[in-house]
Amino acid sequence: MPDHNRVEGSSRKLAGDVKVGVGRVLGDSRLQAEGRADQAAGKAQNFWGSLKDMLSGRRHDDHDRRS
Hints:
The chain is an all-alpha fold. It contains two helices and no strands. The longest helix has about 40 residues.
Protein backbone atom coordinates (compact mmCIF):
# COMPACT_ATOMS: atom_id res chain seq x y z
CA MET A 1 0.00 0.00 0.00
CA PRO A 2 1.42 3.43 -0.87
CA ASP A 3 2.43 5.85 1.84
CA HIS A 4 -0.40 8.18 2.90
CA ASN A 5 1.73 11.16 1.81
CA ARG A 6 1.55 9.97 -1.79
CA VAL A 7 -2.25 9.86 -1.67
CA GLU A 8 -2.63 13.19 0.12
CA GLY A 9 -0.01 14.82 -2.10
CA SER A 10 -1.76 13.69 -5.26
CA SER A 11 -5.08 14.98 -3.93
CA ARG A 12 -3.55 18.33 -3.01
CA LYS A 13 -1.95 18.69 -6.44
CA LEU A 14 -5.26 17.88 -8.11
CA ALA A 15 -7.00 20.53 -5.99
CA GLY A 16 -4.31 22.98 -7.08
CA ASP A 17 -4.88 22.09 -10.73
CA VAL A 18 -8.58 22.83 -10.30
CA LYS A 19 -7.89 26.16 -8.56
CA VAL A 20 -5.51 27.24 -11.31
CA GLY A 21 -8.05 26.35 -13.98
CA VAL A 22 -10.96 28.08 -12.23
CA GLY A 23 -8.76 31.10 -11.53
CA ARG A 24 -7.89 31.32 -15.22
CA VAL A 25 -11.54 31.16 -16.26
CA LEU A 26 -12.55 33.78 -13.70
CA GLY A 27 -9.48 35.94 -14.25
CA ASP A 28 -8.63 35.59 -10.56
CA SER A 29 -4.85 35.79 -10.22
CA ARG A 30 -5.03 35.23 -6.47
CA LEU A 31 -6.84 31.90 -6.93
CA GLN A 32 -4.30 30.91 -9.59
CA ALA A 33 -1.42 31.68 -7.21
CA GLU A 34 -3.09 29.70 -4.44
CA GLY A 35 -3.53 26.81 -6.88
CA ARG A 36 0.13 26.93 -7.89
CA ALA A 37 1.13 26.84 -4.22
CA ASP A 38 -1.11 23.80 -3.68
CA GLN A 39 0.38 22.13 -6.75
CA ALA A 40 3.92 22.63 -5.46
CA ALA A 41 3.03 21.44 -1.95
CA GLY A 42 1.26 18.40 -3.39
CA LYS A 43 4.23 17.49 -5.56
CA ALA A 44 6.59 17.80 -2.61
CA GLN A 45 4.35 15.69 -0.37
CA ASN A 46 3.96 13.07 -3.11
CA PHE A 47 7.75 12.98 -3.57
CA TRP A 48 8.25 12.52 0.18
CA GLY A 49 5.80 9.62 0.17
CA SER A 50 7.54 8.05 -2.83
CA LEU A 51 10.88 8.36 -1.09
CA LYS A 52 9.49 6.74 2.06
CA ASP A 53 8.00 3.91 -0.04
CA MET A 54 11.32 3.38 -1.79
CA LEU A 55 13.29 3.31 1.47
CA SER A 56 10.86 0.95 3.17
CA GLY A 57 10.99 -1.31 0.11
CA ARG A 58 14.75 -1.44 0.37
CA ARG A 59 14.51 -2.40 4.01
CA HIS A 60 12.17 -5.25 3.10
CA ASP A 61 14.51 -6.33 0.29
CA ASP A 62 17.50 -6.32 2.66
CA HIS A 63 15.55 -8.38 5.17
CA ASP A 64 14.50 -10.86 2.47
CA ARG A 65 18.12 -11.29 1.34
CA ARG A 66 19.25 -12.11 4.87
CA SER A 67 16.63 -14.83 5.34
